[in-house]
Specification:
CATH superfamily of the largest domain: Metal-dependent hydrolases
Helix content: 25-40%
Structural class: alpha/beta
Bound molecules: nickel (II) ion
CATH topology of the largest domain: TIM Barrel
Number of helices: 16
Largest sheet: 8 strands, parallel
Radius of gyration: 27 Å
Distance between the termini: 39 Å
Number of strands: 17
CATH architecture of the largest domain: Alpha-Beta Barrel
Length: about 450
């Protein structure tokens, strides 16, 4: 329900009970947490935490307090750390003239170089601003023109400043201080900011909301910030959760991280990830491993499988691709009715289709699906795997009878108006020459070698 967009969970105060802190967050409906680092070492710590817990992400950056020893080579270190898939922003960065732990000129240089890094990497930034409004406005204005997306974390400026940043498409973010007794001015500002421009955060371990003020803060207390905001805007907390989470998902592109990949380009073709389920369990398949192709994770639970319309939306114009391939780490004919519907759309829109299958689709669906190929499937690529049924059975961990089933599938498909290709993976134990001869001479179809990773 909630997303805590700012919690420094690497802080020493969580050293002993981080497991429980994360558990309490989940129990209090905080589904995602973003950990903004403050320097290189805390970025590394934050990444370790994010690797351990689901729904925890990282912003990497150098906090203004830590910029004293700024050296432009730090940018390269940050750029490297930002390659981690759980790093989703640059932060927390900015200016702090209240404490002035680092000289102003150095703070500005570090801030600007990190903003440039964010633009290069196309990442949003998490901004810390304290008593530096004039310089902050000038710098943000300059970079906004280049496409910068900023979250003004723990906002405590003026209404005019908030409105100005919103006009540049940035987001303001409120923390536990909107619950504090003497903070009517901040509640008054929060009330006037449209909900689609607001994110919420705890800023743990600081800024504990009432009634925890003065004690260690933690993500589980985020609902107290949401409750205050709900009262100010006269809406339910559920609505605050829904809107602020949607804002955060959009801002940090979290949607793309949690949603399984439906379609992915590879070469000139577009591949369709229909399912991760398979009736076989091939020794050379990483379906149950990380299932990554070209940096796209194709992992997909059954509950994440979507109807044809969602695929069609993502395909767009199929003529942009050499072909649309039903593939992925699973057997697409398990979802034959969905494949059929997508294929109909692709053909009607002038595209070409290919079905990559293990040839067990007729057993799986309990009828001859090749009867439905006409007008839907242009090419069917069937995994031969081996010409020897004993080896076939061992490689796929299936009974030997499936070898005959696959051969029959080739034969019935051949009689339809489709191009039939037999493929093998160049796996060390497989006799490729024999497989090619078998495909071309015995069955009279084309042959393709697939590379084994
Ligand atoms: Ni912070």
């Amino acid at each position: 329900m909630y997303i805590d967009t700012h919690a420094h969970l690497f802080d020493k105060q969580y050293e002993l009970d981080l497991d429980e802190v994360i558990l309490r967050a989940k129990q209090n409906k905080v589904d995602e947490i973003i950990i903004p680092a403050t320097d290189i070492s805390t970025t590394e710590q934050a990444i370790k935490i994010a690797e351990k817990y689901e729904g925890v992400f990282v912003a990497c950056g150098i906090h203004p307090h830590e910029t004293k020893a700024w050296d432009s080579s730090i940018i390269m270190e940050l750029e490297n750390l930002a390659k981690h898939p759980k790093v989703i922003a640059i932060g927390e960065i900015g200016l702090d003239y209240h404490y002035d732990f680092s000289p102003k000129e150095i703070q500005i240089k570090a801030f600007q170089e990190q903003l440039e890094l964010a633009l290069t990497l196309d990442l949003p930034v998490i901004v810390h601003n304290r008593e530096s409004d004039a310089d902050m406005k000038e710098i943000i204005t300059k970079y906004s023109a280049l496409g910068l997306k900023a979250q003004f974390h723990c906002f405590n400026g003026s209404l005019e400043d908030a409105q100005y940043y919103i006009s540049l498409n940035h987001i303001v973010s409120f923390t536990g201080n909107i619950t504090f007794k003497k903070f009517d001015f901040l509640r008054d500002i929060a009330k006037q900011i449209p909900l689609n421009k607001i994110m919420i955060e705890t800023d743990s371990p600081y800024m504990s909301p009432i009634p925890h003020r003065g004690k260690r803060n933690e993500p589980a207390y985020l609902s107290l910030v949401a409750e205050t905001l709900a009262q100010l805007h006269s809406v339910s907390v559920e609505e605050i959760a829904e809107i602020t989470s949607a804002n955060a998902r959009e801002f940090f592109s979290l949607r793309n991280i949690n949603k399984p990949i439906l379609v992915y380009p590879l070469g000139e073709a577009l591949y369709i990830n229909v399912t991760n389920r398979c009736n076989a369990d091939c020794v050379f398949c990483s379906r149950k491993g990380d299932a990554v192709i070209n940096g796209f994770s194709l992992r997909m639970n059954k509950s994440q499988e979507l109807p044809a319309l969602d695929y069609i939306k993502e395909i767009g114009d199929p003529k942009k691709y050499s072909e649309v391939v039903f593939c992925g780490y699973g057997e697409p004919t398990i979802r034959w009715s969905v494949v059929k519907e997508i294929a109909e759309y692709v053909k009607a829109s002038g595209g070409k289709t290919r079905l990559n299958t293990n040839g067990h689709g007729n057993v799986i669906n309990k009828f001859d699906i090749t009867e439905e190929f006409n007008g839907r499937i242009d090419v069917v690529s069937i995994s031969l795997n081996s010409t020897d049924k004993e080896q076939y059975s061992k490689l796929m961990k299936l009974p030997e009878a499936y070898f005959e089933e696959m051969i029959n599938f080739v034969k019935v498909a051949k009689m339809k108006n489709v191009e039939v290709v037999l493929s093998v993976v160049d796996y060390p134990e497989i006799n490729i020459k024999l497989a090619e001869r078998f495909a071309r001479n015995v069955l009279g179809v084309s042959f393709r070698l697939r590379s084994y990773f």
